[in-house]
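Q: Here's a chain of 581 amino acids. Please give me its 3D structure as tokens.
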Amino acid sequence: MVAESNGLYLGLDLSTQSLDAVVIDLDDALESAFEASVNFETDLPHYGTKSGFIYDPESKRAVAPTLMFAEALELVLERLRSAKCLFERIRAVSVSAQQHGSVYWQRPPHLPDTEKDSQKSLVACLQEPTTAFAVPFSPIWADASTTAACRAIEAAYPGGARQLARDTGSRAYERYTAAQVVNLALHQPAAYRQTQRIQVISAGMVSILCGNWCAEDVADASGTLWLQLGALRPRWAPKALAATEQAAGLESGTLHGKLAESPVLSFTAAGPIAPYFCHRFGFRPECLVVTGTGDNPSSAAGLAMRLGDVCISLGTSDTAFGRTSSCEPQLFGHVFRSSLDPLAYMPILVFSNGSLTRERIRGPDRSWEDFDASLERTPAGNQGLLALLTFVDEILPRLPAGLMYFAQIETESTSSALAELKLALLRPEDVASHDAVVRAVVEQRALAIRYYGERIGLPFPPQRVLLTGGASQSRGIRKVIADVLGAPVYVLERGKASLDAHVTPWNTAARGAALRAAYVQRGEQQEFADWASSIHAVRYRRVAEPNPDAFQLYTSVMLPAYARFEALVDAQSRTGPVSSA
């Protein structure tokens, strides 16, 4: 039991499938004092979600019931109470949430402020005397029904998609908030007219905690398509708002009135917690609510990322993001403002084919130890064999599912290799060995991260590569990433045991929210990563070193060959398979 005088800090992470809560005590910040979780599908089955959302395959629309988020908040706090969490010692709370999704309010979330009325459920409070939400369902990041809206926004934007990306950090992608709003205005005009405030999900959750509307932070606002990326003082981008209005057929200048006046910096206090939560759970009135942010920016806080770091998360999808002082927005990927530094940026790349692809290539009869052994038996560069496999639709590059392309560099000369690159459509068993296929798939991901990352502004070579996700336990994958990116690889350790020992992985987004809450409430002035390190909130272990000769091989031969190979695959996927190119 921690000492009575110590304060606690609560971080909430509302992901696609669950709401996780982590409470930390700064005197033992490497471990969680309390944890609780609510799974939307299994714990709240009456909302009818699968994997946390409702999906219509015909329209490709993906939504989550907005009231489900509120009920999950109430339930996760109940579970913390059952775990004997001392709410009166929680000094501050903050939120991380899935990015891009939107919440539509028709009134502020005013909650009861008396002890008697605060015994009502949170869901009941948000429905009395009228529902707080103009739209009962929140479109989420998985919503792919907005392609036409995206193209309309880009067509309306002066300079088109490329200039839109330069100004806001991204072209119009289906999951972005702006496209969701266009669809709402076009297909549910009455609901849009009733909407008084549009928020991203993290701001919606913070608004519930405060009992009044709160602003988005710059990092999560970057996922709306409306943030003026380069403005030192956060503000919405007038041309992006105007393009959204034009695409939706709205009166010019009206959209801004449904948003917060402007986004705020990430280290901003939103206000005290609402009296409802004091009466219901025992929070103290002075408990501070800190502005929320998106899950990736919050993970950057949980990882205590420094300038020059690149984090690679290897999971169902693979994600690479960094912290950098400059960026080059492109027609691929995204650039957000950093949640850790008002002058920094967070370039981010997302690849759909992650763990599923690696599992399919490993095969049902082989273990992950066998997978590592395959990587150790094959040389860096794989003797010139490249692969580009898609078991699901790929985001980066945009390719359909079902592609299994291999290419062989047939000469040692760099210039000749590019000129004589052969492209053949083969099945994995047609390649020389299973080991070679395994290495080709791992190198495919590492080369793609470097190819796209260098162009969008990820620091290369990085100071450190922070590797997270299930595949971060693979010795062979660690080594390939170190060699391709030319930087040492680190993994997180939890307490006295590392993730290699199969300790339950941290929710870095929830921990990031808790650490951000502590940083703001305490008025810390030290650089965030330095402060987090000083309280021993994170601990890394260096697990792989780059080989200079391998790095040179990847730089001079494999990377340019991969770029050529990807362009050929893209062309062939549009026109149909051929045996060679």
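Q: Can you summarize the key feature?
A: Residues 413-419, 496-504, 577-581 have pLDDT under 50 and may be disordered.
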